[in-house]
Amino acid sequence: MPFTYTRSLWLRDTDTAGVVYFTSVLELCHEAYEASLMETGIQLHFFFNHPNQAIPIVHASVDFLKPLHCGDRPILHLHPVELTSNTFTVLYQLQLGSQLIANAKTKHCCIHPVHRHRIPVPADLLHWYGKWQDKPT
Length: 137
Prior knowledge:
The chain is an alpha+beta fold. It has one domain (3-132): Thiol Ester Dehydrase, Chain A, CATH 3.10.129.10. It is built from three helices and five strands, in the order βααββββα. The chain has a five-stranded antiparallel sheet, with helices on one face. The mean pLDDT is 95.
């Protein structure tokens, strides 16, 4: 079952044309990612400052289908879709009501923060992945 996140879009999220700036959509996706981690019981301070793991985003993309504006309150559905021994991919769908507004994707790689070599996906992220992935019915 995907994780669902929502928040209002503010003036700071828009460009001079009054449309949500493209990086703001990626920020919204990352907010949803962080909220889904917390919902799974992961403590963000420790997660992002772990001495033996770092989880950088190595790819991000957004496909915009319709504009978002200041005052809109999109619903964002997050679900992890691909898992390897040291990477995972997360898909995001942004909707206004029943209208699909944008699709986004982030790919994350698990590395050691000092040596920068790949490491296995940590157990707490495997639990997170299992909680939010789409399960066959």
